[in-house]
């Protein structure tokens, strides 16, 4: 963890020097740039995550059928579900991987921003915030933006808004994150806001780029067959 914290602080200082070169000296801008870099590095995982989540969404009718069919035989139901996942290339755990990778980065940012000593302290601010290593002095502005941007990203990425559990998480997680960031370093809250905004934009492009899955194609074929006229040979 110490190596990761050192890497984060060194990266912030390097990115700050980059903002100096473009005549926009700002550690806040350096944090935003770091966010963009992290999102670009995580893009392959994010794409796989959303593709898997899309397939999982379309597999829900099949999963519900298995729940009903094998409700008294959990072992058999699990075996059949694994067969379905393998057939369509779905991975229920794929959605957790980017979060698991992101978590150490958040911890490193949290600890790094608390102990970070900027080379130019007067540039370690953001509008009404004089020191990004301290909590937002207003007590609510950044936390509210954290909640709103988290909600927006979850709303865009939510694979099944009708699911009660996901619907609860859609509202509970933004409130939780917003409340937590009240006492977090303002720089970390700024990172999370930028992460959510960039993630939302990225997600819109991912949604447009994901091609129909085999589940969709199968459903379309079945729907077409329902409307096809019956052949004379089949009538006989």
UniProtKB/TrEMBL annotation:
Region described as Disordered? 215-236
Spell out the InterPro entries in the cross-references.
YidC/ALB3/OXA1/COX18, YidC/Oxa/ALB_C, YidC_ALB_C
Transmembrane intervals = 27-46, 88-110, 169-194
Q: Where is the Membrane insertase YidC/Oxa/ALB C-terminal domain?
A: 27-208
Q: How does it sit in the membrane?
A: Multi-pass membrane protein
Keyword Chloroplast set for record: no
Q: Tell me yes or no: is Mitochondrion among this UniProt entry's keywords.
A: no
Source organism superkingdom: Bacteria
Q: What keyword terms does UniProt attach to this protein?
A: Cell membrane, Chaperone, Membrane, Protein transport, Transmembrane, Transmembrane helix, Transport
Location comes to: Cell membrane; Membrane
Task: Read off the NCBIfam families from this record.
Answer: yidC_oxa1_cterm (TIGR03592)
Q: Which family does it belong to?
A: Belongs to the OXA1/ALB3/YidC family.
Record-given protein name: YidC/Oxa1 family membrane protein insertase
The source organism is: Dehalobacterium formicoaceticum
């Amino acid at each position: 963890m110490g190596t990761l914290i050192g890497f984060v602080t060194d990266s912030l200082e390097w990115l700050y020097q980059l903002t100096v070169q473009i005549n926009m000296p700002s550690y806040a801008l350096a944090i935003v740039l770091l966010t963009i870099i992290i999102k670009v590095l995580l893009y392959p995982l994010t794409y796989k995550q959303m593709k898997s989540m899309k397939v999982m969404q379309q597999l829900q009718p099949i999963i519900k059928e298995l729940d009903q069919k094998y409700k008294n035989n959990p072992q058999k139901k699990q075996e059949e579900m694994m067969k379905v996942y393998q057939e369509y290339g779905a991975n229920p755990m794929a959605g957790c991987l980017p979060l698991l990778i992101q978590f150490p980065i958040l911890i490193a940012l949290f600890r790094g921003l608390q102990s970070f000593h900027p080379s130019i302290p007067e540039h370690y601010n953001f509008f009404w915030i004089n020191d990004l290593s301290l909590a937002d002095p207003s007590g609510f502005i950044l936390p509210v933006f954290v909640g709103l941007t988290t909600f927006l990203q979850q709303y865009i990425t939510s694979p099944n808004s009708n699911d009660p559990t996901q619907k609860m998480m859609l509202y509970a997680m933004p409130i939780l994150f917003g409340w937590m960031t009240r006492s977090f370093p303002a720089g970390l809250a700024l990172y999370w806001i930028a992460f959510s905004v960039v993630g939302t934009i990225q997600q819109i492009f991912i949604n447009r780029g994901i091609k129909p899955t085999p589940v969709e194609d199968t459903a379309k074929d079945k729907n077409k067959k329902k409307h096809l006229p019956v052949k004379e040979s089949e009538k006989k």
